[in-house]
Write a structure and sequence with these properties.
It is built from five helices and two strands; from the N terminus they run αααββαα. A hairpin with a 3-residue loop joins β1 and β2. The chain is elongated and about 60 Å long. Strands 1-2 form a two-stranded antiparallel sheet. It has two domains: 66 residues, Orthogonal Bundle (Arc Repressor Mutant, subunit A), CATH 1.10.10.10; 44 residues. The protein starts with 6 loop residues before the first helix and ends with a helix. The protein is mainly alpha-helical and 119 residues long.
């Protein structure tokens, strides 16, 4: 956990990844602040900030005195957000570069299909 981004952002992303990959299902209890802090050897306030960010984003919700839980629909919403970010970060620049190089969308699709076959 040290890629230059704030630790609380990394904590939030770890939880998001667990939701997206199904490790942490909807309505399941999320790890506690203390569990996250102990496991990642970080300040509990930092772990809490990451969890609270997810609450603000509607990914987790609090049950007073019990803990935080994955919100219904969180997985679908996280996937939608990540797909949009993926398109902005990778697809739009890819299409723009292909256009500069005179590669048609048909040819680009063919290139992507060839990559899939090679995997």
């Amino acid at each position: 956990m040290d890629d230059g981004r704030p630790l609380f952002v990394q904590i939030a992303e770890i939880i998001e990844n667990s939701i997206i990959d199904g490790t942490l299902e909807e309505e399941a209890q999320a790890p506690s602040t203390n569990e996250l802090a102990a496991f990642h050897r970080i300040n509990p306030a930092t772990a809490a900030k990451g969890l609270n960010q997810l609450v603000s984003d509607g990914v987790l919700y609090k049950r007073r005195g019990i803990g935080m839980f994955v919100a219904p629909g969180a997985r679908a919403e996280l996937r939608r957000r990540r797909q949009e970010r993926f398109a902005r970060q990778y697809i739009e620049p890819l299409v723009a570069e292909a256009d500069k190089l005179g590669i048609s969308l048909t040819d680009l699709k063919r290139m992507l299909d060839q990559q899939e076959v090679q995997r």
